Amino acid sequence: MPGRPPVDPADALALLMSPAGRVDPYPTYERLRAHGPVVQAGPVFYVVTGYAEADAILRDARFGVMDDALRDQFMPGWRESPAVLSISRSMLRTNPPDHSRMRRLAAGAFTPRRIAAMRGVVEAQADALIDGMLAAGRGGAPVDFMAAFAYPLPVGVICALLGVPAADRPLFRRWATDLTGVLEPEITPDELAVADRGAAELRAYFSELVAARRRVPADDLTTALVQAHDADGERLSGDELLANLIVLLVAGFETTTNLLGNGLVALLGHPAAAAALREHPEFAPGYIDELLRYDSPVQLTSRMSTAPSRHGGVDLPPESWIIVMLGAANRDPGRFPEPARFDPWRPQVHPLSFGAGPHYCLGAALARLEAQVAFPLLLRRLPELALAGRPERRVRLTLRGFATLPVAPGREAAPVTVAGPPPGAAGPTP
After folding, report:
1. Residues 134, 390: contact at Cβ < 8 Å?
2. Which helix (H) or strand (E) is 314 found in, with range?
3. Is 398 exposed, middle or buried (0-12, 13-18, 19+ CB in 10 A)?
4. Which of 98, 188, 289, 406 has a CA between 20 and 30 Å from the CA of residue 343?
5. Alpha carbons 18 and 397: distance in angstroms, whole number
6. Residue spans of beta strands (DSSP E) within 341-410
7. Are the C-beta atoms of 160 and 124 separated by less than 8 Å?
8. 305-318 pLDDT, tens per residue?
9. Which fold has domain 9-408?
10. What is the pLDDT of residues 294-308, one digit of tens each?
11. Residue extents of the structural domains in the chain
12. Residue 139 to residue 127: CA distance in whole angstroms
C-alpha cells in the first residue's frame, strides 16, 4: 500500500534483537518510529520511540516495573536464578513503597553537596589514569581506552563510596559484564547461566564485605546499609541488602564506562567540537548532555501498565508490557532537529538516558561529574589523542558501549593556563 512503512513493528523488533541490530540500533529505531511514537508489536506488547511519550510514561504512576507476580507469570522458576533474584530485590526492579524505602537509604551518598565534594577525587584519579595511558602508549603502542580509563575511573569512584578495597576493583568488570546480560530484553539459557555466574560471584563478594563491616564499621555506604539492615530488618531485608549493594556497584560504573567510551568516539569524530571543549572546559555540562543524547549508554528500559491509559494515540490496556526505547527517544526528530547530528550547542537537551520519574538514576549527577572532569582533562593533556584501530562494540542493546577501544595517546601537551571564554561567549546550555 502507498505510504505504508516497509517493515512491520514485529519484524523491526526482531531485527533490533539480532547481533547486527544490537551493535547499531539507530536505523531500526527509525523503522519503528515510522509507525508512530507508540507501536504495538505483539499481544499486550508495545514499543515507545517518541521523546514526549517516553518521558510521560516514565513519570506516569500507572506504569511500574515488573513485580513478583508478573515474573511468576512470564519467568517461571526465576527465584532459582541468582541474577534475576539479585536484580529483582533491588531498587532497580521494585515499585513503591518498597522502591521508595530502599532508595531513601542510599540517597544520602548522592546528595549534591557530596557529589560536588568528590570533584577533587575524580580529578586526581583521572590524572593518574592519563599518566598510565601515556606510559603504556610510549613509542606509539595502542592503548585500550576502555581498560585503561573508561572502566577504572568510575569503578574507582563507586568503590570508594562503597568502601571496596582498591585491590579488589579489577574483579568487578567481568562479574558485572556477566550479570548485566540479564538486563537484555531477550536472553538465552546459556546467557542466563553466564549472568547467574556473575551474580553468584558478586553475592559471595558482598556477603564477605558485609561481614567485614559488621566486625569493623567504616565511613562508607556499605556500612550505612548494613547498619540499616541490622537496626531494623523491615527497613532493608538481607536479600535487599545484597541486591542493592550489587546494583549500586554495577550501575555505578557500567553507565559511566559506556558514556566515556561512546563520548570519546563522538568527540574524536568531531574535532572542532573537541577543540572547543579543550579550550573551554566550563562548557562541559552542555557537551555531556549532548553526548548522552547522541549515543546513550542506556538504550532502553521497561514498564508494566497497571491501569488503562492512552499515549501517542494508542490505548494501552492493563498488564501491557512497554519497552521504552531511550536511545530512540533521544533521537526523536520531533524533539531534536537533525537528531543524528552531534551538536553540543543544542539548547535544553534534557536526554532521557538516565530515565525519568521515580526510577530516575540515583547516580546520574555522579556520572555527569565524572564525564565533565574526564573529557576536558583528556583533551587538554592529550591533544594528539586518536583512534588506533577499529573499536569493537559489545553485542548488547540495553547497555550500549565498547568492549575495546584502541587509541594512541600521542605526546602530552605542555602545561598551560586555561583561558576563560571570550567576552560575550556562551557555551552549551547545561
Report:
1. no
2. strand 314-316
3. buried
4. 406
5. 10
6. 386-387, 392-393, 402-404, 406-408
7. no
8. 999 999 999 999 99
9. Cytochrome p450 (1.10.630)
10. 999 999 999 999 999
11. 9-408
12. 20
